[in-house]
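Risk mitigation, structural track. In case the binding assays with adenosine monophosphate fail to produce interpretable data, a predicted complex structure has been prepared as a fallback.
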Amino acid sequence: MPRVIACFKYSIDASELRIDPSTRKPVVEGAKRKTGDIDKRAIEEAIRVKERTGWTATGLCVGPQAAREAAREALAMGLDEVYILSDPAFEGSDTLATARLLAAAARKLGDYKLILCGEMALDGLSAQVGPRLAELLDLPQVTYVRKLSVEGEKLTAERDLEEEYEVVEVELPAVVTVTREINEPRLPSLRDILRASKKPIVYWGAGDLEVGADVVGEKGSKVKVADVYAPEVKRKGVIIEEKPAEEAAEELVKYLLQEGVLR
Amino acid sequence: MPSIWVYSEVQSVALELVRAGLQLKQATGWSLVSASLGADALKRAEELAEHGVDKAVAVSGAVFEQFDAEVYAKALAKLVGSEPTLVLVGGTKRGKELAPRLATKLDAGCVTDCIELSYKDDMIYAKRSAYGGVAIATMVSPLPLVVTIPPRKFEAAEKAAEKGSVEQVSLELPGPRVKVVEVRKKEVARAKLDEARVIVSAGRGVKAKQDLEMLRELAELLGGEVGCSRPVAADRGWFPQWIGLSGVKVKPDLYIAVGISGALQHIAGIRDSKIIVAINKDPEAPIFKVADYGIVGDLYKVIPALKNAVEKAVRS
Ligand SMILES: Cc1cc2nc3c(=O)[nH]c(=O)nc-3n(C[C@H](O)[C@H](O)[C@H](O)COP(=O)(O)OP(=O)(O)OC[C@H]3O[C@@H](n4cnc5c(N)ncnc54)[C@H](O)[C@@H]3O)c2cc1C
Ligand SMILES: Nc1ncnc2c1ncn2[C@@H]1O[C@H](COP(=O)(O)O)[C@@H](O)[C@H]1O
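Fallback model:
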């Protein structure tokens, strides 16, 4: 059976990330994680493609064991199966190593027609894995897609570029990266959630994938993080509340004059 | 000796990369080379050669007519070769889909949206946003490395005293597998947000397109421009561009967020504003946490009142 694959990351939820006030470093250990906002749209789009084509919709996630939580949600939304690529040896993978793992998994699954990624992951913001995966699998890439349709072996997609929308066609298989605007991800019902508990979540580790141990994980990564810090935001935080609009506006203007930002 | 390559499909951005490249050249002693592909390649290469690159390579050919990341990556990988290189790519959307593909061909690391670059002990250090824009990370990588630099991060390079060499190269390349069937220009005029001194910015709290008029009047009064959050541009199509992490980063003296909730991705684009003002009817909106001044209230009452108050202040 042909497949549509959605790649999703079990990302750190940056909006909930705590910053250690003394070091100004984000506290990554134990930080809350979830499927990225855009990656949910990749999952949703895969489900829509499956609904139209009857292909198998498969999720791929490189992440910790705990990504199971995200996998369950994706299955409840409508994916048929999720593979979590998880191994201590995969930890610390940069975008190239991550893409290598995803490529190895796609090859092992076989018969992939369409691989959907998010435009970027919301924690790392690197926007690299999609194009890297396309290169590793020697597939054409279509990025920044806000609309797509699949007909037979042909994909038509509308890309959102800075100054124009570009409509393109490509023979499948291909790698597509989607934007936030492509769809509104569905919220699974209780029934969906219950039904999904029977769908398979499969863990693949180093032994299951044909990828050299020296090109994945921290050891196989070229780019490393030398330092991270969260610059302090010093804002005045003067909030005018419960005043009539006129009064509030005049008070604000007074402040802005003091700041010297009004001409 | 390693070399530094610069490439952007937008000539003004390529000139900015030349300046970034010259700084690194000074720190490393490596040579600086540019690539120009497609129409006018030779003309563009001549200009880059006049602005400080040691060598400007020009490749023309029909395969470059359409920007296809796969084809462009192939071309650049052939030019760059297997020597250790640092490739600087202009961080337009096209540049950002090209860079990771090129890096994969070169079996190289890649850092996108780099805001600062330096060199120490054979390693390249590249700063960029991390964790959704909450933090700044310094990434470190050996060569080869591909980096994208956002447009306008650097000024364009100045004319150099000595002109570099220009070299025309021809490459055998397969055509694109992706076919462009239609291009629709985005209609709305592009405001100069990245240079604006004052920005009045519309969020989803602004209900109808005609309500923008009210914001425009206020902006005009303040000598500024109107901007917006991502959904207002990307979902509603009222503007061609939005402000934030995935849009334009702005640094006005005064930023007025009107009916904007203050999502992390929006905040990431306004951090460098001198004064941030928030107008929102929800006292719990996160935008108030990053604001210098805020009014909790209905924008449909506050904006007209603010316009009056500003008019009064300006007159006196
Ligand atoms: C990968 C990715 C990248 C993104 N990049 C960006 C980016 O670069 N820039 C960006 O802006 N967003 C970006 N977003 C989207 C971002 O997460 C938020 O969804 C978006 O910023 C919300 O826009 P908003 O504040 O206008 O709308 P909302 O969050 O819907 O907020 C509307 C606000 O208006 C207020 N309001 C409503 N009516 C009134 C009224 N009458 N008077 C006063 N206040 C009122 C409400 O209280 C609310 O706070 C990105 C998202 C993703 C997934
Ligand atoms: N660890 C991961 N597991 C699965 N997919 C990923 C992973 N990291 C990134 N991706 C996919 O690649 C896209 C771009 O990620 P990035 O290059 O990290 O910004 C994401 O939106 C995902 O679709």
